[in-house]
Amino acid sequence: MKIYVIGIGLIGGSMALDIKKLYPEATVCGIDANEGHLQEAIALGVVDVAGKMEDLTTADFVIVSVPVDVAMVVLPAVLEAIGDDTIVFEVGSTKAPICEAVANHPRRRNFIATHPIAGTEFSGPSAAIHGLFQGKTNIICEVERTAFKLQEKALDLFKAIGMRIRYMDPKSHDKHIAYVSHLSHISSFMLGKTVINKEKHEQDIFDMAGSGFESTVRLAKSSPAMWTPIFKQNRKQVVKTLEEYISNLTQFKDLLINEDYAAIYEEMESVNRIKEILNGINIKK
Amino acid sequence: MKIYVIGIGLIGGSMALDIKKLYPEATVCGIDANEGHLQEAIALGVVDVAGKMEDLTTADFVIVSVPVDVAMVVLPAVLEAIGDDTIVFEVGSTKAPICEAVANHPRRRNFIATHPIAGTEFSGPSAAIHGLFQGKTNIICEVERTAFKLQEKALDLFKAIGMRIRYMDPKSHDKHIAYVSHLSHISSFMLGKTVINKEKHEQDIFDMAGSGFESTVRLAKSSPAMWTPIFKQNRKQVVKTLEEYISNLTQFKDLLINEDYAAIYEEMESVNRIKEILNGINIKK
What we know:
The structure is a homodimer. Chain A is α/β, with parallel strands linked by helices. Chain A has two domains: about 1-170, NAD(P)-binding Rossmann-like Domain (Rossmann fold, 3-Layer(aba) Sandwich); about 170-285, 6-phosphogluconate dehydrogenase C-terminal fold, CATH 1.10.3660.10. In chain A, about 55% of the residues lie in helices and about 15% in strands. Chain A is built from twelve helices and eight strands. Chain A has helices spanning about 10-20, 35-45, 70-80, 95-100, 150-160, 170-200, 200-210, 210-215, 225-235, 235-255, 260-270, 275-285, and strands spanning about 1-5, 25-30, 50, 60-65, 85-90, 110-115, 135-140, 165-170. The first copy, chain A, has an eight-stranded mixed beta sheet, sandwiched between helices. In chain A, β1, α1 (about 10-20) and β2 form a beta-alpha-beta unit. In chain A, α6 (about 170-200) crosses α10 (about 235-255). Chain A is globular. Chain A starts with a strand and ends with a helix. The interface between A and B is large, with 98 and 98 residues.
């Protein structure tokens, strides 16, 4: 089995590690615009060798795991270069733009649009870890547009690395993910900004910030190179979630200004049911 | 040694567990307005026996760990009831109001104002855990207003359970803590609200929400009974942090509306230094 990983970071690299463990005979070839990352990935044993676009014709799987703006350019080129039995998937956090970009591509049936809901706030080959996808959800869009035999091939791989499969249309995916992922990142970045701007003496933060603060700003460590194009591609949905979030924060602030503590209590109590939702997430882990 | 814990929840209960481990000969007496919590605490072995306010005169330590509005009433009553060598401390998340409340109390020198920066999103006796305070910071306010011998007694205990001590005036504490704790809780509650309001079908959230979402909304599990009075007592500071947070979110939203992606990239990159700040927090853990 021959696997190509284009963009060897957290997601591509972690998939490479799981695949190498599952299929010891597989050769994992890495392609990365960043030569340093490529060499690091080989040195870390995340991939076996450096690959070339010209060789994609011999690939069984091609994993495109690059920032979503780069994927718009790379994916069509990859589809040009592959063989008839190659299945290509892309793992970005926006799905509608990429599905549109290849909608009329002659090789569309060799492509399966996916979004593995897995990751950490870290990036680059050194962020790759074994078992990242175990029990996580992989959202697949427009599955009917992928050749049936190649769907099976991809699904077998996703299941082998422990993923639950969910099917969704690209627009619904982008709308929902804005709420449960993209908004969380912005809330975290802006929370970090608010505190950093205020607390010029970081030692004060060291001393006073606890695990609660850490938890809410963890995502502010995320890569701007990865997230800027996600916000760009999902701009309308993200703006909408931000408007709703800002309006909820403003309403809470007004309740405080008006000292309506009964309403503040009720607000918090009604959100407490997030416990059950989070338990649902934990079960997947 | 005789210890009284008034309000046996996460903080008071966890302190009781550490004290019982450190000083097996100590008797830990529990007092709680909630009879069910008191019995649960005894059943769980968090405290040894039920205590009475009348017996506080024999106490070495009295830990007041109740919601901050209740503390305003309970603490003066406790100070009336204790003996000359009893040291009383209160562990709430606001410090100026409580310090003012007992500023002129004849027993002020038997009180030490503290805020252990430790906790989880859980509450009640069952939330009590061993070693919660290990490596955490305990902020002490107006230490000079506590009798020196009793300061020593309290500090020895705090150090014995693994805490780092920091001294701060109550107003500075309340101002800083609004940024690194109170704001995080509101951002989390309102993020949870925004998503719940949108995603009526929770299964969608189960399937699409990952560890990032979980991390940013974890604090939305927190107790409204504990947090409403904190927001009330620190209202002016919390409103100020909310105004700054909302303004940063609005500015980010406007950058998106105006498609200024270079500025969006810079915003995120400049906040990435939160990594070092969080590393500082981790070192404490």
